[in-house]
Structures are given as C-alpha cells and as structure tokens.
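ARCHIVE CARD
CATEGORY: sequence design from structure
SOURCE FIELD: tokenized fold
FIELD CONTENT:
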C-alpha cells in the first residue's frame, strides 16, 4: 500500500469506521461533500452502509462500503487494502465505531464490559496501528472519546474508562508519528442525538441532558462531523495531539 503523498489532482481518500450510522454516517456525507473518496466501514448493517454510500455519491464524492470488525486485524487490513485498491491510498482515517454499555460499577456485567472494551479499546488500537502504517503525508487520524470522561456521569464508568484509554493512545500516537506529517486528534462529543445515545433514555432524561450546555440543546451528528472535517482538512493540520471536547460548552 502506497504511503506517498497523493498527486495534486487526486481526491483525498478517507476511511470512516462506523460509517453506516450516527456520527460516522454524518462524517461520510460531510467528507464526500468536500470531494473525498470514502470507504464506509460497517459492522453488520449492509443496507445502512449502502445507503451511506449513496448519500456520499449524491454529496459529490465517491464511496464504497466494506464490512469489517474493527477488533479483527485481518478485516481491518482488508478495509485499508480496499481503500488503496479502489482509490490509491489513505489520507484520513476517522474511527467512530464503538459500543456503549451503561451500568453502575457495582452492577457491571463483566461479559458486557469485555465486549465493549474489545470494540472500543482493542478496536481503536487495531485501527490506529493500520492508520500509522498507511496514512500518507498530510494525512490525519481522528479517534473518538466522550466528554463524559471529564463529566463523570454515574453509570458511565465502564464506557468512560475505555474512552480514557482512547485519549491516552491518541496523544502518544501523535508523538510517535513525528516526522511523518500526519496529525492525530481525538473528538470527545457531549450528549449527541444518535441512536446509541438515545437508546434506553426517557424523555425527561433526554431533556435534562439537552438543557446542560449553554446552547441548550443536544448536539447533532452534523455538528460533530463539522469538527471532524476541520481536523481532517489541510486547514486543521496545525492541530495535533489534542482532545477536542465538542459538547456545546458543558463543563
């Protein structure tokens, strides 16, 4: 797989894991609108992934969908190989794929903990390793955490612990890629109106969380995709090794 910079006339190429739903899907559409060729990584729902590809094409980009378990190194390698074969290389990797399981620490189901950490921690390391090996000069790797790492909401202990690991990985990888002209940053959304966030929450809980930011609303996937698009772009290339808490001002 080539790690040489793309020619000036070639489109930048992005791999987006978790690209079939929520923030990942909004990111696919946003990058496609900027002219990227996008590889939509998805875990299970082929129909949603293909719909994301169609949206990307309508937005002005090119796209393909590839099924890959982010914790499986062979499947992740195949995901990146598809990007190289279809579009010539990889310039941006946005790793939005993740799982969320909420429970008080005293009541943790350890099987659920293991499954979540397999995706959120191991999966991030697997994708990060492949990104570090293949991103071209001028490229960007964007990981995902959560603002709850700092807010410390009850029942988020297991989820936040895994995302804390992602933040640590992000800062270290940015330093390890010294001399490569590749940035590594982490986006940490606050409450955002995705299916994963809304699942299991009653209207009162959602309203309470929406009232917390000074902007007095939930974030949207499009809000977060705008942050990702900036970090992925040449305009955002001087931002490196940062945790961006995109949460409307919750402190």
């Amino acid at each position: 797989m080539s790690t040489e910079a793309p020619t000036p006339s070639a489109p930048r190429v992005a791999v987006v894991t978790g690209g079939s739903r929520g923030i990942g899907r909004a990111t696919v559409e946003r990058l496609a609108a900027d002219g990227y060729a996008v590889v939509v990584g998805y875990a299970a729902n082929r129909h949603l992934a293909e719909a994301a590809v169609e949206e990307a094409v309508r937005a002005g980009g090119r796209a393909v969908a590839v099924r890959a378990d982010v914790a499986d190194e062979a499947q992740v390698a195949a995901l990146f190989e598809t990007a190289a074969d279809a579009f010539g290389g990889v310039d941006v990797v946005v790793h939005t794929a993740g799982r969320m399981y909420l429970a008080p620490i005293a009541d943790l189901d350890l099987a659920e903990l293991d499954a979540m950490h397999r995706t959120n921690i191991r999966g991030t390391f697997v994708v990060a390793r492949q990104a570090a090996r293949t991103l071209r000069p001028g490229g960007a790797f964007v990981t995902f955490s959560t603002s709850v790492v700092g807010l410390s909401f009850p029942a988020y202990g297991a989820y936040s612990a895994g995302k804390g690991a992602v933040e640590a990985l992000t800062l270290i990888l940015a330093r390890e890629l010294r001399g490569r002209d590749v940035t590594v940053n982490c986006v940490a959304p606050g409450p955002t109106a995705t299916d994963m966030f809304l699942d299991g929450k009653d209207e009162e809980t959602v309203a309470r969380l929406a009232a917390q930011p000074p902007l007095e609303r939930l974030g949207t996937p499009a809000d977060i995709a705008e942050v990702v698009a900036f970090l992925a772009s040449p305009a955002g290339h001087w931002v490196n090794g940062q945790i961006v808490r995109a949460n409307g001002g919750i402190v």
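CARD ANNOTATION: The beta strands are 13-17, 37-42, 62-67, 92-95, 140-144, 183-187, 243-244. The mean pLDDT is 94.
SHELF: design records, drawer C
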